[in-house]
Design the sequence.
């Protein structure tokens, strides 16, 4: 294969095999665990995991569980009580590639 | 300027206008009567703008207001409203004649004039009256039936009440009118270009006229000074990545240094009016230096060929499929046929051109939020693409009513440029490209070049199949490798073929970028297999009908992917077709003596439903009155997904359909349910909705509560999220073996046609389709898909081709008209599919998978020649006939 097409992959995280898409997002919302979050957070270079991090992750997961999608920015601000700047500071990879990815929210589905 | 007095929908109007102003412009832009649509760049080719002027059907794009002093104009809005519709509007709704609805107002107005003069017209009179009105969705059959029904209403022979399905007659399997149909019939459904925003900038975009070139310089200084111009937008002005990444990050929103196909966008001019924007665009000076052109896969394969994308080889995907030992089986076979088949680059041809509106709103926190209104069939995924490309996070996407799409809106098109302009100029923007520009801007159906070997033993059982195929990816990837995978997933069609040696290769070229097009891969690959089936049957001396039936896959046997199937109701479908086939063969045999010869051709298809790796999510909520709200981004560009979701929900919950509320169009309130593509909406999103409803129903049963607030008071949520998760894919990269679709929709099509052996012209007499998609949810919606698919399949087989720089409108595209219609018959079987929602599957794409080979096999049957390259034009047929003499 000479392809540039996305290479999805299965990796072992916190002792469990988890499928990720080409951007490193969980394929399955249900595959996420606290342990997986901690291992992925450490691997992403997050210096330490604080209660604020957990609060954001909890909100994102609860929102997705209730709505089947990630929150819009204003919903994220309201739900966490933080500004986008504060959220960006908290997750160095940003809201999408940091917080949403670590929270195990799948990317919207498309043909792949 | 000239002062004109006229009546519009019974209201006297006095307007002062340039007498050359088109009536369509007056109606849409000044009077805000947007029921009349524009598709064909005001060339009078489509009839979407048809209105009644002094009792005559008039294309309002051609009528000049200066000629209308004292005229009496009626538009679709003047005919009736959703609360008080005209009988013709009701007839169109009740006949299932409305799919996307973009052509509907024009059709209805042409019908009004016809029935005013002749309330009992013949079919020929209907075809004559509607000859200037184009429709891409229906194949015109239900439109003709709607006109006939309207005539019966007007003659007092029956009433809408008598025809409308009774709610007490059940929900599933009943043709309840689509929830959106009446708004489309009355011109009150808003399509993207129907939105007006005060102070919005209009865009004109400069696109490449060369297939491959370096951008040497851009001089927009003169354009910047022209009247009404707000500015010029280039790649340098875009805050984000400027890359519209669908699966591969290769397509620039605006080209920075190179253009890679005829139509690649270079810059946009924003002005207060479209005329000013276009005028200024003409003053922009862009210097392009031509580069070597990759004209097709064979050129792109050459090691000395220029590499189109710096970090990606031209051969960008290579997927084999190996099952058994095809080489040995071919060697040992009693009969082998070899042939090369080619399919063309084609335009999906939705009647509505591309369009996007972008504007600003304040979100709940008072922050600026960019809103995109467009034609997306995957609003959540497209929103993410746009956020990255534009560098603007706070966005919302709203799907407008959409005038067909047929795969073309799987990817972002005009949304990127409109959004970038809105951000750059901090203004609302309307980007409404012409039809000609839409054709340049949008993706196309991939061209396939297939070298095929098909073998059988002495008993007429298939033993081996080889298909080495090259796919022209065009300039950008979009879903390129997915198309190859889909072709391989469905490679063996309806049949059991124990040995397979296939290989699909995808190559970048300087042709228009390929992407989804109804079926996306299977229509092309199945053309080769089904024609080869006839070739091999002929070589073996077996009737092609018997040969197909003899080689049907059976439960317990495997497809080309190695996946064993549990159900395969194909033989039963063939048996349902058998009497029709016998009749057709007998009739054709009697019509072979003159220069016009009659032929019969078969094609079959097994179209996968519920693909490997697919998932869907949907949310439902119990409302305060006990109704159900469904939150699922299930786009509906015409298939009838609103019917499907409404009927499934009402049936499952045991409530009236009027108590089901659909929320499907806005990223702000829908679950990210995935694309309206791959015939997946019923199976995937329908199943996700049923999963959510199952949870809700269990909570209601446990508590005995019947409303949202009561359920919450009893300690249960009122809102539930459901999912449908399929087995993970993809195919093994070395063998092409692996997970396949959860189910299939099966079809057998038979074409009866005539070939004029002197002119090479083909006339389709009749198509018969036998289909098994599981229990039918809405019969008119199902047959509507089949009829539209047959019509589109015949266009693909005989006429249509997109040639960059030459195909510019509906005439040069050879869009099918009502005069091209033919008799259609549908045979329905309903084998339950265990995993389908109410045991159903989906049907939107399968309907054209068998069509092109059925047509070409019928040409062979009639005229004795093979035309292995599509479209099978008269010239190609004549050339094939000449070669045999």
Sequence:
């Amino acid at each position: 294969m000479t392809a540039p097409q996305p290479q999805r992959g299965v990796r072992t995280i916190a002792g469990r095999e988890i499928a990720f898409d080409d951007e490193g997002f969980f394929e399955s919302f249900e595959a996420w665990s606290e342990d997986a979050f901690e291992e992925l957070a450490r691997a992403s270079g997050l210096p330490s995991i604080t209660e604020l991090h957990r609060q954001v992750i909890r909100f994102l997961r609860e929102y997705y569980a209730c709505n089947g999608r990630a929150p819009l920015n204003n919903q994220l601000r309201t739900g966490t009580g933080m500004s986008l700047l504060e959220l960006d500071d908290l997750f160095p990879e940003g809201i999408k590639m940091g917080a949403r990815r670590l929270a195990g929210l799948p990317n919207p589905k498309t043909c792949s | 300027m000239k002062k004109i007095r006229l009546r519009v929908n019974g209201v006297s109007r006095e307007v002062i206008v340039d007498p050359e102003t088109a009536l369509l412009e007056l109606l849409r832009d000044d009077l805000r009567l947007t029921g009349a649509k524009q598709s064909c760049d005001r060339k009078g080719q489509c009839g979407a703008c048809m209105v009644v002027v002094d009792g005559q059907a008039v294309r309002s794009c051609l009528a000049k207001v200066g000629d209308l002093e004292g005229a009496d104009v009626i538009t679709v809005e003047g005919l009736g409203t959703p609360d008080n519709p005209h009988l013709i509007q009701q007839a169109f709704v009740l006949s299932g004649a409305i799919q996307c609805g973009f052509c509907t107002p024009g059709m209805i107005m042409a019908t009004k004039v016809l029935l005013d003069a002749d309330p009992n017209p013949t079919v020929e009179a209907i075809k004559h009256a509607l000859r200037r009105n184009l429709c891409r969705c229906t194949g015109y059959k239900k439109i003709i039936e709607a006109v006939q029904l309207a005539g019966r209403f007007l003659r007092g022979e029956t009433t809408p009440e008598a025809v409308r399905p009774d709610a007490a007659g059940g929900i599933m399997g009943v043709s309840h009118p689509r929830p959106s149909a009446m708004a489309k019939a009355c011109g009150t459904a808003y399509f993207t270009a129907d939105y007006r925003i005060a102070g919005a900038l209009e865009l004109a975009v400069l696109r490449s006229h060369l297939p491959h070139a370096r951008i040497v310089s851009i001089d927009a200084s003169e354009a910047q000074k022209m009247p009404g111009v707000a500015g010029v937008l280039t790649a340098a002005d875009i805050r984000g990545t400027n890359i519209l990444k669908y699966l591969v990050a290769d397509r620039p929103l605006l080209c920075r240094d190179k253009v890679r196909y005829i139509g690649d966008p270079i810059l946009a001019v924003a002005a207060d009016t479209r005329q000013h924007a276009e005028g200024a665009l003409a003053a922009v000076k862009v210097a392009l230096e031509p580069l070597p052109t990759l004209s097709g896969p064979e050129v792109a394969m050459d090691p000395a060929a220029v590499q189109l994308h710096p970090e990606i080889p031209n051969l960008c995907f290579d997927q084999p499929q190996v099952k058994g030992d095809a080489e040995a089986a071919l060697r040992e076979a009693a009969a082998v046929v070899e042939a090369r088949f080619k399919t063309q680059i084609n335009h999906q041809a939705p009647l509505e051109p591309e369009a996007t509106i972008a504007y600003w709103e304040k979100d709940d926190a008072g922050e600026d939020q960019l809103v995109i209104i467009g034609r997306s069939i995957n609003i959540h995924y497209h929103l993410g693409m746009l956020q990255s490309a534009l560098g603007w996070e706070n966005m919302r996407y709203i799907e407008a009513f959409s005038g067909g799409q047929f795969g073309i809106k799987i990817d972002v098109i005009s949304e990127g440029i409109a959004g970038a302009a809105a951000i750059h100029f901090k203004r609302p923007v309307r980007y409404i490209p012409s039809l000609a520009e839409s054709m340049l801007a949008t993706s196309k159906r991939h061209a396939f070049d297939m070298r095929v070997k098909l073998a059988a033993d002495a008993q007429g059982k298939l033993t081996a199949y080889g298909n080495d195929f090259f796919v022209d990816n065009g300039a950008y990837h979009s879903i390129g490798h997915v198309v190859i995978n889909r072709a391989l997933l469905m490679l063996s069609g309806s049949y059991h073929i124990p040995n397979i040696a296939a290989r699909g290769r995808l190559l970048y070229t300087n042709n228009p970028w390929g992407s989804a097009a109804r079926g996306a891969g299977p229509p092309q690959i199945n053309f080769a297999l089904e024609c080869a089936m006839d070739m091999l049957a002929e070589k073996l001396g077996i009737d092609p009908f018997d040969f197909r039936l003899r080689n049907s896959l059976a439960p317990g046997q495997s497809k080309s992917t190695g996946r064993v199937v549990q159900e395969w109701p194909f033989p039963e479908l063939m048996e349902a077709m058998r009497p029709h086939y016998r009749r057709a063969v007998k009739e054709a045999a009697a019509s072979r003596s003159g220069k016009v010869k009659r032929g019969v051709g078969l094609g079959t298809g097994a179209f996968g439903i519920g693909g490997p790796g697919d998932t869907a999510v949907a949310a439902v909520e119990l409302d305060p009155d006990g109704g159900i709200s469904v939150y699922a981004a299930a786009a509906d560009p015409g298939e009838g997904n609103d019917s499907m979701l409404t009927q499934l929900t009402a049936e499952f919950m045991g409530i009236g359909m009027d108590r089901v509320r659909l929320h499907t169009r806005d990223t702000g309130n829908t679950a990210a349910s995935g694309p309206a593509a791959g015939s997946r909406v019923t199976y995937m999103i329908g199943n996700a909705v049923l999963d959510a409803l199952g949870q809700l129903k269990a909570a209601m049963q446990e508590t005995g509560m019947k409303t949202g607030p009561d359920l919450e008071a009893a300690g249960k949520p009122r809102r539930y999220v459901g999912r449908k998760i399929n087995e993970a894919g993809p195919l093994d990269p070395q063998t092409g073996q692996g997970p396949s679709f959860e189910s299939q929709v099966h079809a057998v099509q038979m074409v009866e046609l005539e070939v004029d052996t002197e002119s090479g012209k083909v006339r389709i007499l009749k198509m018969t389709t036998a289909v098994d998609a599981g229990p039918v949810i809405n019969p008119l919606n199902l047959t509507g898909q089949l009829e539209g698919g047959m019509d589109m399949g015949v266009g693909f087989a005989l006429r249509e081709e997109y040639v960059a720089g030459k195909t510019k409108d509906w005439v040069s595209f050879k869009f099918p008209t009502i005069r091209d219609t033919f008799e259609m018959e549908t045979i329905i079987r309903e084998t339950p599919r265990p995993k389908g929602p109410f045991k159903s599957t989906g049907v939107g794409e399968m309907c054209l998978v068998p069509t092109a080979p059925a047509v070409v096999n019928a040409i062979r049957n009639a005229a004795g020649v093979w035309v292995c390259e599509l479209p099978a034009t008269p010239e190609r047929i004549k050339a094939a006939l000449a070669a045999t003499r």
Remarks:
- Chain A has one domain: 10-102.
- The interface with chain B takes residues 1-6, 8, 19, 22, 27-29, 65-70, 72-75, 77-78, 84, 95-96, 106-112 of chain A (CB under 8 Å).
